Amino acid sequence: MTRLGVKVGSVSLKSPLILASGTCNFGHELSEYYDLSILGGLSSKGLTIKPRAGNEGVRVAETASGMLNSVGLQNPGVDYFIEHDLDYMRSLNTGVIVNVAGHSFDDYMAMIEKLDPHKDKIDALEINLSCPNVKAGCMSIGTDPAQIREIVSAMRSRTDLPLWIKLTPNVTDIKSMALAAQNAGADAVVLINTLLGMVIDIKTRRPVLRNNTGGYSGPAVKPIAIRMVAECSKVLDIPIIGCGGVMDYKDVLEFMIAGASAVEIGTASLIHPTCPVDITRDLTDYCKSNNIDLSDLTGTLELW
Amino acid sequence: MNKEYSCKVLKREMLTQDTAYLTIDCPEIAQKAIPGQFVNVSCSRFLKRPFGIASTDKENGTFNIGIKIVGGGSGELASIPEGTVINVLGPLGNGFDLSSDSYILVSGGTGVFPINFAYETLRASGKDVTMVQGFRDKSQICLTSDDYIVTTDSGDYGIKGTCIAGLDTIDLKKDQIVCCVGPVPMMKAVGSWAEAKRLKCYISMEQRMACGIGICLVCVCKKKAEQEGVPFEHVRCCKDGPVFEYGEVIL
Description:
heterodimer; A: alpha/beta; TIM Barrel; eight-stranded parallel barrel; four-stranded antiparallel beta sheet; 10 helices; 16 strands; globular; B: alpha/beta; Elongation Factor Tu (Ef-tu), domain 3; 2 domains; seven-stranded mixed beta sheet; six-stranded antiparallel barrel; 5 helices; 15 strands; 37% strand
């Protein structure tokens, strides 16, 4: 393991950098830009039991330092993914994280039953309890500790695969959500998914997004994500994967100091597809010039 | 491997009151680009802005884009000082099928730019091309020539009417391919005109975009579903398009 190597529970990753779900599809397109094997992992587009066309109309709205999306979990369905994309993801020589979404308790269980037989090709399941762009499931589950507990413990009893629970920041107390996931048997939590937002076109007096609201991401949300990682780090025993507005290596360091064991890169890939190459180089230089292993940084934050 | 390039803006000129034309230094893009493809260009805003490639000069290693001012980002790029270095991703997307021997090219709005590239490329390989340009009025006319059929809605230049009035003046040849880039109503009208004449027709779509490389799924177009159980499918404008055969996506 090089100085960038990290562990998320039982999962060893060669780098803390994971491409966030929904910003890398299944890896095919970004492979045209760089060798994805430099990454710690790749989290697939959020998958559902049946294919989803996603939301109609305008799906993106720009802000001063971020963007809102309302894609609405467009995906080819888990069966198609297993047949066409899973082996490809495995061949990339990086961690394979499969993002699991659903509209109901039964959907999530059916997803586990579909994916568990392929556990030799999967490093972890990232359970999406946080997408804000669908009418049922996802965020509506992730804002209720009782439902988080119910769904995570039921998944726990159905698979030995590492369960990383991706949580929504659209809650009053993120710690109670993260603790519910931990107590139900989660292996890690991913903090955070997008924030629910709205952008209005002042000429038409209508929301820019056809779905009215969307998930806000980009550098604007980073301080919120950092705060939530820091808060949860003080109360959790399981590892945290940080996510939200990472644009450069300093952002990665910030997340790790706050308590993250690994860090996801999302919106930055939409602006500069090769940014993980630069971040990897800069993190390597940082470890060298400070003579440390990157994982030593995790949770070194000292509050005033 | 594809790359993001840092490129110098060599020249900026205004074609109309609200449309700029940039000459950008990038030998790789000039070499690789085919008509119908686009580039995603950085400005001070958060997201890049997509522009159809309007021309390439392989010898000098430059390419051109046309920028119609529609908002802050395009406004900034349309007034960019010469010599500024910008980040450019490209060439992106799929281009036109240029394998036939005879073409009718139709453009309107910012469609004049990718269609200009198609015209130059086809003419350079000695192919038969008829060019039809539809503009709102004389003030919008750019990248034109006396060899083209020009229509204006107002009638203050060329043939009065839409580009269909221009198309109806052409003596059609067998196996001619129509390529049309313009506002959706124009592409609809030209597509159905071509269908009636039994000519193959390609169109190029425009959507609000983010990544431009097919990973974020925000710039989708509706397509009739092939799979059962879904009312329609979404295809990515940036990666599966922007060029589609007429009828492939729902306009």
